[in-house]
Design brief:
alpha/beta; Carbamate kinase; 8-stranded mixed sheet; 5-stranded mixed sheet; binds adenosine-5'-diphosphate; binds the ligand N[C@@H](CCC(=O)OP(=O)(O)O)C(=O)O
């Protein structure tokens, strides 16, 4: 393996519950050690690895002897709180076989949404990697309510890849990659080896199916792939049980589905906008505004806003959607929902007289916006 010729410096590996449990109800440590071996080999060859691991809830169930618990958020938090310590213990022991230390980062949406916390998380990741320690990331399920949850580890791993400026994201799951329909329900489904563009027809293929203990299925993997490739990060979706899968993916061998990265990655501030999540609010845009924003690279003005959805403060990241609810851009609002409700459809010149102040003509400035 000549990794110096490959060119990847930093790789994020995401392991789904389906991989960690091998489809059973418990952590498959025999398989985890094999994955740790491959990641350790990369670290020793000079390729830095960040591990994004699911499996806390499954590990919690196993550790407590499969208790009968109602399917509530609080009970999932209980299972994650118990299971996360088992999970990190397992990884710490398995990597120690290869002489490597691990460091744990449990993140929530809020850590990615707030610029200062985002930069702090980035510093921690870099400090670990600069010292040859493998960062192990999971969502902080025990404290995350639905509002502050990223929600699935596919998205979390993409955001982590942006955070640490990785150049490859490997999403490992229980299928060989992305198929043209769900291989669980269609045995004739065909593997898609290369994806250059992610559009609505591709999203439809991903459907909603999820393996036994997993969250999100292929749909969240596609979302993750889209976030990463926009930031100039290549993505591979492959089977976590394929022999040498991590090493082969890093050596650019033909494994699973490969997503080409966009050539002009977004600058860092736009990456941060994409790394956070537009959780709190939406603006519905008229046709002219959609065109101005998506085709002409303009800022969004109040005149082009048809309606405001949700309650939010100034400085919140919003989804900019069309009348069918399709998201066309994401950006930071210069006005609160309350203010926006007073100025929708109005000319920018009227803002000061309507509000008694103004924060500029743009409701969402183009420097604070990512067109999707
Ligand atoms: N087009 C598709 N190609 C591959 N898998 C798909 C597709 N559509 C849905 N799936 C489902 O997605 C599942 C993997 O997602 P998930 O259960 O969340 O796994 P993980 O725990 O690895 O994140 C597969 O088992 C498969 O049934
Ligand atoms: N944070 C959760 C996993 C959430 C998740 O996205 O799971 P998966 O679809 O298996 O990657 C856990 O550790 O159990």
């Amino acid at each position: 393996m000549n990794l110096s010729e490959i060119g990847y410096r930093r790789v994020v590996v995401k392991l789904g519950t389906s991989v960690l449990t091998s489809g059973s109800k418990q952590l498959d440590k025999a398989h985890m050690v094999e994955l740790a071996r491959q990641m350790s080999a990369l670290m020793k060859a000079g390729v830095e690895v960040v591990l994004c691991t699911s499996g806390a809830i499954a590990a919690g169930r196993e550790h407590l002897g499969y208790p009968k618990l109602a399917d509530t958020v609080a009970n999932k938090q209980l299972l994650a709180a118990v299971g996360q310590s088992q999970l990190i213990l397992a990884w710490s022991q398995l990597f120690s076989i290869y002489g490597l230390h691990v460091g744990q980062l449990l993140l929530t949406q809020a850590d990615l949404h707030d610029r200062e916390r985002y930069l702090n998380a980035r510093d921690s990741l870099n400090a670990l990697l600069n010292n040859g320690i493998i960062p192990i990331i999971n969502e902080n399920d025990a404290v995350a309510t639905n509002e502050i949850k990223v929600g699935d580890n596919d998205n979390l791993s993409a955001r982590a890849a942006l955070l640490c400026h990785a150049d490859l994201l490997i999403l490992l799951t229980d299928q060989q990659g992305l198929f043209d329909s769900d291989p669980r329900s269609n045995p004739d489904a065909k593997l898609i080896k290369q994806v250059v563009n992610i559009d609505d027809s591709l999203r439809q293929l991903a459907g909603g199916a999820v393996s036994g203990l997993g969250t999100g299925g292929m749909a969240t993997k596609l979302e993750a792939a889209d976030i990463a490739r926009r930031a100039g990060i290549e993505v591979v979706i492959a089977s976590g049980h394929r022999r040498q899968v991590i090493l082969n993916a890093v050596c650019k061998e033909d494994v699973g589905t490969h997503f080409t990265a966009l050539e002009n990655p977004l600058e860092s501030r736009k990456q941060w906008i994409l790394a956070g999540q537009a959780a709190k609010g939406k603006l519905v845009l008229d046709v002219g505004a959609i065109k101005a924003v998506t085709e002409k690279g303009r800022s969004l003005l109040s005149k082009g806003v048809v309606s405001v959805i949700g309650e939010f403060d100034r400085g919140t990241t919003l989804q900019l959607i069309d009348s069918d609810g399709r998201e066309c851009a994401r950006g930071i609002s210069r006005y609160s929902a309350g203010d926006l409700n007073k100025i929708v459809g109005k000319h920018s010149d009227e803002i000061e007289s309507l509000l008694g102040y103004d924060y500029g003509d743009a409701v969402v400035h183009r420097n604070d916006m990512v067109v999707l």
